[in-house]
Design goal:
The protein is of the alpha/beta class. It contains 15 helices and 19 strands. The strands form 4 sheets. Strands 7-3-2-11-19-18 form a 6-stranded mixed β-sheet, with helices on both faces. Strands 12, 13, 14, 15, 16 and 17 form a 6-stranded mixed β-sheet that branches. The chain has a 4-stranded mixed β-sheet with strand order 1-10-9-8. Strand 2, helix 4 and strand 3 form a beta-alpha-beta unit.
Amino acid sequence: MTEQGNELIKGGVSRRSFLVGLGATAAVMAGAGLAGCAPQSSAAPSKPDADGSEASASDKGATSKADTIQAAAEKPADKQEAKEADIVVVGSGIAGMSMAVEASRAGAKVIVLEKHDISGGDSSICTGNFYCCGSKYQDSLGLTNYGTPEEIAQFFLTQSDGDANIDICRLVADNGGAAMDWLVEMGCEFNKKPGDGVSDRSMVVKNGGKFIIDTLIAEAEKNGAEVMMKTRAIEVLMDGGKVSGVKAREGKTEYTITAKAVMLASGGFDGQDWAKELYAPGTVGWHSLSSPSNTGDGIELARQAGAMTLMKGGLSQIHLVGRDPVPLNDEISGLRMVNTGVFLTDLGYRCANESMTSQFDYFTPFVQSGRAHFFIICDSQQTEKRLGLLAKAVEKGVAHKADSIEEAAIAAGLPPYPTVKTIEKYNTLCDAGEDPDFHKKPEDLKRIEQGPFYCIEITPNTNDSFGQLAISTKAEVLDANRKPVPGLYSGGTLANAEMFYMRYAVSGSSMCMGTVTGRIAAQSAMKYYGA
């Protein structure tokens, strides 16, 4: 850790009050990005329930079928086993494995519990973006136009609309460069993220997020850490108000693992619809690009230990083209942002300000609409490049072309009458040069009048969660009085309420936060139990 990080880690934090447990669809909800990365593939496969069977969308949304840790704990175990460790880590993503490596390198006996049969969670299925400044590696590549840690911290705070913990923002900004160098030292190679206008802060690992996770697992195991796959933590054990270990299940075997400290790093809650119904019901039915193991286990485990939850009700959302969405790297996915078009729900009503510059900003209007399917209607007054993409989208069946708005609506399955009336009203706003309904930029208010007309299918996808646990700058989990729960630590997505709110700050910030908080959790835990 940097000297700045060591200085920051010694204190508590200030924090304004949070709403606990936003639930109603009308509640304002937040958005971010997949573990700081873009998803490798956009079309999420159908995900089996915990027993391996496929469920319908309605079944997945039913909390009566929810595979919660409480439900798992109620199932009888045929076998009991006991284990011991200095530190138990719940989750094998970037935060959990960073703690496992940092602690095992320092001599701690570490056990990592991963309930899935695939390690890494969202960190393994992301591109591997990393947002930081001041690393020796960036300097060696001549990528020095990255500003200062304080500028990054203030950027995080601004992106949260002031609803972030500035101490946590500074912690991540101050230690991000050292975190990247730490990964590089283990064999991870980064390049500057491609694209026009990308700052020197934005880096991406050469071989994807899975390479980072595989590298960390290999390093942890080399240092004696044990990674238990398909093993789910079901209870945080307490003794005299202090964490004393966990109970876990692997099939019908129950493990009681005594430990001096526990880190919860089990990711978010958008992997399956039943979990989204519990924590962000407005997104039930949306596609998920996250690991199916992201079902909010860390929330319930932390509550067992008396932790406070900062439930902002939000998920990171990106919207893609098509009912069965095309991959994000497909060129026609660029049609998901048509500023001169009109965004409609499947009921034919306008639902958003089409001038929003980030697709993350569409999360709130999508949730407020209460719908799961959307469309963009535009006319032929587009650039040649965009017209070419529209033609390809029509060929793939994810956009519909017709000589009238009514015919385009019918082809897309939209109700024609409200759709036509919505476009007529929109055109009157264009004539007036002002949009009092959604405040679209005047320069984007272009009449939709020149045929042929296009109707593009849009599907919202969740790819990460916002708002779960409160942490200190020592990565300690906090209770309702913002006091540490002795022996309990967290980081990464499970603790991102301290840094994100209504939008994901920037691609790569989650991977950076996970690495920083994981390392700090290890250092703090070992200091706590006197290692």
